[in-house]
């Protein structure tokens, strides 16, 4: 069925479209001259609109979608059709109205249709307490038989980044179709695989009548892709209020890499013990508008473009070996072929050489330094008017050996170096502390043991997560935070994250369920054995 060919009992979208048309009409009458003025005007107009009108609209949508999905036999595919239809609507100015509605839809589809139907034991067991947090996130408490054992926590997230069929996907991005042994769809790698793997493992272990000795939490955030400020942050707030302290936390992150690290003899499981910090900077230039027939020597666009060019031509300094990536390569050294095994075993001498080689590749360059990515550039409203305002946004991922303050200082004074360019910090946070990974570290060693239970000959090493996860919000609840996705990734898979043809293999999904099934049982020991768990 085409997403636009809805049956007569479909949800009425007229209220949404009318709300949008009212706003769009007001914008056209005002004709704002730049993006900032446009955003401010939209906020003013939104505030004037009836609060009850907006609230009733959003509140009514779970019931409307419930009726349609029920009419289609509870088909989750029909939910995805609704999602795709909303993605076609023109919400380019007030896009968060669309996001709000999509979240309401997702909350209903996940909680009422997908989860309860797929995992009935999880949602009916007396051993499991489930609650919604901030309306859309999920917090589970699985009660253990020995309350004196400190609990741990597993994290995953249910939200995904956008995707469009126009991007040449082999199958529709929200179909969940299987092709040649792979399950395709946005979120299969980031991070629905973990969501489904955790819940499937819990469902199975409960069905078998197994009662875990050590209790544990499961947190499924709904807004990780937009910093987790409503989902993960509120889960943490609840746990703090209840006085919870966690033995360790496991979230998405690094994985089992097969053929990605050149020269390594066999696959390696990397358990990230830290993640990079991040900041977004807004660069802007303003000057009086003028006619294109009488252009000034320099324009806002030219000045800002020059600043952006300086950022790209002057990357941050090399820091390879000064963060957790150093420990990673030292652990892996004996698995590299000669002469790399000798080089990796002596980073104190060869780190500068390795850094120069690694920075040539966009993936390995992320381990070398704080990265700089210009992600947005906005300027101009008409082809014959010199833009009075230009802005660009820069996304930076901060190496563990640097601080947020240092990065801001370097970019402001050394790299941009132009007082006409205004630099504002949109947000930012320092790199995360490095979690312990020695032989006495319960969380790391239990995760490692679980990997080795499945792959006895696997090399396991600490690593660094170059992206950011919800786990960073949990640092006050535990000093042992690890980021590991129990899936095998091969060359080319990294480009599928947030990209086209995101997919996971049947073997990977089965392996994720097995991993969490084993992890639940491995965590039931009171303390680690005196002998190291190192099987390598």
TrEMBL record:
<dbReference type="InterPro" id="IPR047177">
    <property type="entry name" value="Pept_M20A"/>
</dbReference>
<feature type="domain" description="Peptidase M20 dimerisation">
    <location>
        <begin position="274"/>
        <end position="407"/>
    </location>
</feature>
<dbReference type="GO" id="GO:1990845">
    <property type="term" value="P:adaptive thermogenesis"/>
</dbReference>
<dbReference type="InterPro" id="IPR036264">
    <property type="entry name" value="Bact_exopeptidase_dim_dom"/>
</dbReference>
<dbReference type="GO" id="GO:0005576">
    <property type="term" value="C:extracellular region"/>
</dbReference>
<feature type="domain" description="Tc1-like transposase DDE">
    <location>
        <begin position="6"/>
        <end position="38"/>
    </location>
</feature>
<comment type="function">
    <text>Secreted enzyme that regulates the endogenous N-fatty acyl amino acid (NAAs) tissue and circulating levels by functioning as a bidirectional NAA synthase/hydrolase. It condenses free fatty acids and free amino acids to generate NAAs and bidirectionally catalyzes the reverse hydrolysis reaction. Some of these NAAs stimulate oxidative metabolism via mitochondrial uncoupling, increasing energy expenditure in a UPC1-independent manner. Thereby, this secreted protein may indirectly regulate whole body energy expenditure.</text>
</comment>
<dbReference type="InterPro" id="IPR011650">
    <property type="entry name" value="Peptidase_M20_dimer"/>
</dbReference>
<dbReference type="InterPro" id="IPR002933">
    <property type="entry name" value="Peptidase_M20"/>
</dbReference>
<dbReference type="GO" id="GO:0004046">
    <property type="term" value="F:aminoacylase activity"/>
</dbReference>
<keyword id="KW-0479">Metal-binding</keyword>
<dbReference type="GO" id="GO:0046872">
    <property type="term" value="F:metal ion binding"/>
</dbReference>
<dbReference type="InterPro" id="IPR038717">
    <property type="entry name" value="Tc1-like_DDE_dom"/>
</dbReference>
<dbReference type="GO" id="GO:0006629">
    <property type="term" value="P:lipid metabolic process"/>
</dbReference>
<dbReference type="GO" id="GO:0043604">
    <property type="term" value="P:amide biosynthetic process"/>
</dbReference>
<dbReference type="GO" id="GO:0003676">
    <property type="term" value="F:nucleic acid binding"/>
</dbReference>
<dbReference type="GO" id="GO:0043605">
    <property type="term" value="P:amide catabolic process"/>
</dbReference>
<keyword id="KW-0862">Zinc</keyword>
<protein>
    <submittedName>
        <fullName>Peptidase M20 domain containing 1, tandem duplicate 2</fullName>
    </submittedName>
</protein>
<dbReference type="Pfam" id="PF13358">
    <property type="entry name" value="DDE_3"/>
</dbReference>
<comment type="pathway">
    <text>Lipid metabolism; fatty acid metabolism.</text>
</comment>
<dbReference type="GO" id="GO:0006508">
    <property type="term" value="P:proteolysis"/>
</dbReference>
<keyword id="KW-0378">Hydrolase</keyword>
<comment type="similarity">
    <text>Belongs to the peptidase M20A family.</text>
</comment>
<comment type="pathway">
    <text>Energy metabolism; electron transfer.</text>
</comment>
<keyword id="KW-0456">Lyase</keyword>
<dbReference type="GO" id="GO:0016829">
    <property type="term" value="F:lyase activity"/>
</dbReference>
<dbReference type="GO" id="GO:0006520">
    <property type="term" value="P:amino acid metabolic process"/>
</dbReference>
<dbReference type="Pfam" id="PF01546">
    <property type="entry name" value="Peptidase_M20"/>
</dbReference>
<dbReference type="InterPro" id="IPR036397">
    <property type="entry name" value="RNaseH_sf"/>
</dbReference>
<dbReference type="Pfam" id="PF07687">
    <property type="entry name" value="M20_dimer"/>
</dbReference>
<dbReference type="GO" id="GO:0008233">
    <property type="term" value="F:peptidase activity"/>
</dbReference>
<keyword id="KW-0645">Protease</keyword>
